[in-house]
Write a structure and sequence with these properties.
Elements: H1 6-18, H2 28-33, E1 39-45, H3 51-56, E2 60-67, H4 70-79, E3 86-90, E4 102-108, H5 116-126, E5 127-137, H6 144-164, H7 187-197, E6 202-206, E7 210-216
Helix pairs in contact: 5-7
């Protein structure tokens, strides 16, 4: 994107600001397709305002969301009905995971805030035999394929913003007010470390500057 004319980039940034949409929520339905029809205990790491945690609760008996940001965690509690089986805790995804063996662990746009390999080991330890870990993450563009996918995403990103907002100007969704930081690790390194920590993990580059990872823990633990 940096090679595009500065005037075009400025116009594109103004357009995207007027028609924002949540890139992470775009993948929530995909996440649900990776999970069992029913499960017991689920954990959402980096739960933000709780959209995914509440969606997980449509199939799970209990869902725990953790996020290191107390402000956005408070917002998640406000948005969640009192009768919901979802709870939110201010905690980090490395040392603050509530005790338990989880049938499902999800992590969206959070792993690049943590030591990657260490976090995967922690997730693996908390995942129950037969459980599913699903990640939507960010990586640093490095290869020609990365840059090509990013270039393809530029016009699609603007089109999605227009369509999702019905062509109208819109405010930023609550979920997009969370603290962010750029990804520093390339996809090739992410894939290499993931396959060491989680043998058999399936990784794929995705549109809108994301990648996905799915790993199912063997039933024998």
């Amino acid at each position: 994107m940096t090679s595009l004319p500065r005037r075009f980039l400025g116009a594109l940034e103004r357009f995207n600001s007027a028609h924002p949409w949540d890139h992470n929520a775009h993948y929530h339905r995909w996440i649900m397709r990776q999970l069992p029809r029913r499960y017991g205990l689920a954990l959402d790491v980096g739960s933000g305002t709780g959209e995914l945690a509440r969606l997980l609760a449509t199939r799970g008996a209990e869902v725990r969301g953790i996020d290191s940001d107390p402000v956005i965690t408070a917002r998640a509690r406000e948005l969640t009905p009192a009768a919901s089986p979802v709870t939110f805790t201010v905690a980090d995804g490395l040392n603050g995971i509530p005790a338990g063996r989880y049938d499902v662990i999800t992590c969206v746009a959070t792993l690049h805030h943590l030591p990657f390999a260490d976090a995967l080991v922690v997730f693996r330890r908390h995942l129950a035999p037969g459980g599913t870990l699903t990640v939507v993450g960010l990586s640093r563009a490095q290869s020609a394929g990365d840059h090509l996918l990013g270039a393809v995403a530029v016009p699609l990103n603007a089109a999605m913003g227009w369509l999702k907002n019905g062509g109208r100007r819109a405010a930023r969704p609550d979920a997009m007010t969370a603290r962010t930081r750029p990804a520093e690790t390339a996809f090739s390194e992410i894939a290499r470390e993931a396959r060491v920590a989680l043998p058999g993990a399936r990784l794929r580059r995705r549109l809108f500057w994301r990648y996905t990872l799915v790993w199912r823990r063997p039933d024998d633990g």
